Amino acid sequence: MAYQQQPQIPPAVVQWFRSVDVDGTGTISAIELQQALTNNDWSHFQLNTCYQMITLFDRTYTGQINMYDFHSLTNFLNQWRQVFDANDQDRSGTISEHELHATFGRIGFNLSPNFVRMAMWRYDTLNRRCLTFEGFINCCLMLQSLTRDFQQRDTAKQGSAQIGYDDFMCMAINNLK
Ligand SMILES: [Ca+2]
């Protein structure tokens, strides 16, 4: 097996990691992570989202992330932050339905206004008809995950797929958050 050298971690990320690792175990739990992740209005991410973030980056399957995983997580968040800021055209700190539709198109997902409305309804946790950074990330992750599931079944790449009942149910439950 090839030896994989761990990437260098920027000092700022190391420092941030240490401040988030409140109990000093060298790993970060979802509860610790929740204190570190905020929206534009400084509201904290929901615990459920933090569990999902840990699951995405926990390569050791311990339910906690180490400094290397945390570095990957910060890169991931920075990338989404750039997409969020670039699409928050009125600089409100949130993504409106109109902005969300435009975002979907820009990142390559051609979906109907009806779908955008449903996605907005689903991820607008504050009931303000707009998405926070957290809601936006969750929404985009759903989009990527479901699209990947669909594309695996759309073998002819025609934009349609035949799907059995049980397969559909597995796909759906796998994407419920
Ligand atoms: Ca906005």
Automatic annotation (TrEMBL):
Signal peptide region: none
Natural source organism: Phallusia mammillata
Keyword Repeat: yes
Pfam families: EF-hand_5
GO molecular function, one term: calcium-dependent protein binding
Domain of life: Eukaryota
UniProt keywords, alphabetically: Calcium, Cytoplasm, Metal-binding, Repeat
One GO CC annotation: cytoplasm
Gene responsible for this protein: Pef1
Subcellular location: Cytoplasm
Coiled coil: none
Protein name: Peflin-like
UniProt keyword annotation of Metal-binding present: yes
Sequence ranges assigned to domain EF-hand in this UniProt record: 8-43, 75-110
